[in-house]
Write a structure and sequence with these properties.
The protein has about 230 residues and is an alpha+beta fold. It folds into two domains: about 1-85 and about 205-230, Glutaredoxin; about 90-195, Glutathione S-transferase Yfyf (Class Pi), Chain A, domain 2 (Up-down Bundle), CATH 1.20.1050. The chain is about 50% helix and about 10% strand. It contains ten helices and four strands; from the N terminus they run βαβαββαααααααα. The chain has helices spanning about 10-20, 40-45, 70-80, 90-120, 125-145, 160-170, 170-175, 185-195, 200-205, 220-225, and strands at about 1-5, 25-30, 55, 65-70. A four-stranded mixed β-sheet has the order 2-1-3-4, with helices on one face. Helix 1 (about 10-20) runs antiparallel to helix 6 (about 160-170). The protein is globular.
Length: about 230
Amino acid sequence: MIRFYFHPTPNPAKVALFLEETGLPYAVIPVDTSKGEQHAPSFRRINPNGKVPAIVDTDGPDGHETRVFDSTAILLYLAEKTGQFSGTPEDRPELLSWMLFIASGLGPFSGQAVHFQSAAPAGIDYAVNRYRREAERHYQVLNDHLAGRDFIVGETYSIVDMSAWGWLDRAIRVRKGADDPLGPYPYLKRLFEAVESRPATARARNVGIGHHFKSGYDEETRRALFPSNYPPAI
């Protein structure tokens, strides 16, 4: 059984998609990051970095309970555990390269683009331009790579496509104000729509739907999501 620590945001969504694609048994444990539940000592023992997603595999290697945190690490771990969605052995170097491209590039720059356009104080034009343009550059890199290809790595759908889907789903916020945010990237849009059409994707979107996560954006939420912006209590 997988204990899946979840909030409805892009990185947990990738893991939800993998779990639904494979049918691995799992239990959702909501972590309301807008309330600061990711900073609780009980959760920090699972992910010392205080971020979602994280999993605890009660049937890990040699039957030991195993924790894994960070969406990229979780996808790699689960792909190895199940032998699914990791391509061929020959694909491995390419798969790792693109997984880390998403983990270090597409994901963080997309997240910062959203932050500076929608959450940061107004007037930080340099940061808005920097992160949005870099996110768009990552879109273009993927779009160019996908010309003449159905998937990012190899000949079949893999965890790389799942990982990209999690952040491409936020394109409307990354490219805020664009009528068709993936329109300038037709091959990337085609990939997103292919993943979006899978039955497992619809199921992944329903993960956690019965839990009431905090909505709205107040001081509690700002302190929970951006604690480094506030001086420590003395």
